[in-house]
Amino acid sequence: MAQFARSAVTAVLGPTNTGKTHLAVERLCGHSSGMMGFPLRLLAREVYERVVAIKGRESVALITGEEKICPPKARYFLCTVESMPVEGDYAFVALDEAQLGSDPERGHVFTDRLLRARGREETMILGSSIIAPLVRKLVPDAEIIGRPRFSTLSYAGAKKLSRLPKRSAVVAFSAEEVYAVAEMLRRLRGGAAVVMGALSPSTRNAQVKMFMEGQVDYLVATDAIGMGLNLDVAHVAFASLRKFDGHRTRRLSITEMAQIAGRAGRHHRDGTFGSLGGEGSDSAFTPEEIEAIEEHRFPSLDFLYWRDGAPRCDTLEGLIADLEARPEVPELRAAPQAVDLSVLKRMADDPLVIERARNRQQVRRLWSACGLPDFQKLGADHHARMVSRLWRFLSEGQGYIPRDWFAQHIAGLDTVQGDIDTLSGRIAAARTWSYIAHRPDWLEYPAEMAERTRALEEKLSDALHAALTQRFVDRRTAVLLRDMGQNISQLPVTVDEDGSVNMDGESIGRLDGFRFSVDPDARGEDRRMLLAAAEKRLGAILRVKVDELLAAPDAALVLAPGQGDMPTILWDGVPVATLHNGQTLMTPELRLDRGLLGLGQDVQKRVADRLGAWMTAQKERHLLPLVKMAAAASDPEVVPVVRAVFAQLADAGGIIERVEIDEALAHLDKDQRYILRKSGITVGVLDIFHPGLLKPGAALWRMALIAARKGTPMLPLPPAGATLLALEGRDAEAGARVAGFRGFGPQFVRIDMAERMARAAHETIAKGEPFHAADPRIVSLGLQEPGFLQLMRAAGFRPVEGEEGKPNWAFRGRQKAKAPERQPRNSNTGLRPAQKPAPAAAPSPSAGSAFAGLAALLGRNG
Q1: 143-161 per-position pLDDT tens digit
Q2: Which residue in 155, 321, 410, 424 is deepest, having the highest Cβ count within 10 Å?
Q3: Helix, strand, coil % (nearest 5) of the chain?
Q4: Which listed CATH number (3.30.2130.10, 3.20.20.100, 3.40.50.300, 3.40.1410.10) goes with 153-295?
Q5: What angle do CA 491, 164, 14 make, to 5 degrees?
């Protein structure tokens, strides 16, 4: 084993929370240059940010397998242990967690850095005190400094998840166990952050940030948190004391227990540890283990794993021989065959590899390719095939991986669809491509590909963080449970402009008008708690809204098509009541919105009175003719036969087809018809109506009142001011009829315009002039010939032969009810006894002529 030049070496050893890393960072920044190696990419990134804050971003570099930030003038390098450029010249060098040299998988890398990585002026070895005897033997010139723990670590016993103290970290040893514990914490305590080695650093940072900022009070993690991560943890609970180490399931060593438990407490704040199992279970600590952890007494390490860190690359055989060489020092043990060596030995049997790896450059390049980490953990065969494919590219042509091939694999990962495991798998694959992209001699455009892989991993990490948070964190429940012991009515509640209801900053639902609805994303078991919280706190807010409603001007209230099935009254766009069938058309039942029903009878009465007064004013404004009809229908001063006509009109909404009321009209004499005409009612050939009820406002209210009486949705309202419509669909046609339109063929004509055209027909024909679809009045209306023909027939005209064979029209009378023969009126009722039918009007001397038809029509109109 080669000997290396030594600088002043200091070994700072002790348990967790002794300030070792903090001391090393201070020493690093005190030198002109330096390098530190860490066991985790996440920890390297954490210290990188601290040093950047001191020295500036242009002076600090971050080097990991999948990430390289190397400014041209960088003097301070924060690295993962595997990525430490040990051949460089640095004034200060530090190695963190040196005791990991005993790890079968990565230990040989830590041991190599322990023996070879040296600073020009100062070298610092950080780790547990269990490595002290080995440091004395392997680095005899090192000064060993012990550091006591700042705070006390004590055993707190076994606790159920529901009784875990806040700021606790639960440690599990499989993804399935982590997910199960996190799910239970979400249900019981509102959620937990999740930290696992399989997560990307970005995702782990985001999850840790949630915990550190107090968004959640619990953290569920694998044993990765034992590797120096600085967390504000008060209690560490072990979900289990057994783990699978890659070969077998075994109980944790006392050192591993202490390393993890030591994350509890920070600086001078004491911490506790315990388990989730019962005292007698396999997951419980033994008294001996508890005493050792509390007193920081652990057996020292007997050996470290070693492998030649600078093997010869002259030949393939020589490289393998050096990597399999055994150490000469008894304190070192040959490392188990790692993945990179396993892949190398497989490839050494490939004839193509044998043919191409003939010189130092190609052998070194091959060994570099074999160093690709197996991030995806898909097995040795799969990983070896991946490395073989890379080697083929690197050993032919210009020695670059094809850009299109690389980009195609990146594009295949560029999707955020899928569950947590799927996203984790994509991130692991993305880390593989990120590692490749940060090898500048492997790609023709490494900077471009490094940026693309960085963006991909960041995108996937954001999606994974969101998925973890969505699954394992319910911030609303966390807020409520956090203050469970307090009066929930004291929690701050706010309502955003868009109606979002927030309790202590977390959205719990929406307030649409006076209706509160729980966030649809809330899980079923949480909905009742959120509803209860809202009921306790929204009462005052709703009463303020009620006061605003009561003081609102009439213009702030509008009638709108129903939300659901009934006409609705809106206040500033907020539903406050709906209309339903009442005693009469003009007196619908007013039902308050359900959001108002929980505010007390006095509040409901005040709102109902306010809305009732508004409705009265609206009817006076838009439906005054209909209001007067309804009043006349019950006015004892009005002759009963006229009252009967008013009653039918009022019940129909002020517009009715002539054929439906002919029988009642037949009882009226000229004076009684005058009463209708004086009221503004048009007794037309086709319809009986008041023109004022054809206005848009009146049409809207009539539509609403009729819909409320029928208990059906409001029909579509024709455009304001329209006189002719071309409609499709039953609802549109029915709405047009209710709004005062009559259908003629494929078109609908407003009834006052239809009456005007009918009168124009009579006047034109009475003059002996032809009347047809090309008449300017018909053309200006837009009525097409099929509709024109139907209008003429409905008005009582029949076609006759005109000049040059062109059809003309003659009035033949429309179908109507027969009136009784007039008799003296009854002095009490004003009615004549109904006897045998009599003609409505005496025939003129020119019976059968067009003038006679006009005379008959005018007689019908009084």
Answers
A1: 999 988 778 889 998 888 8
A2: 424
A3: 45, 20, 35
A4: 3.40.50.300
A5: 120
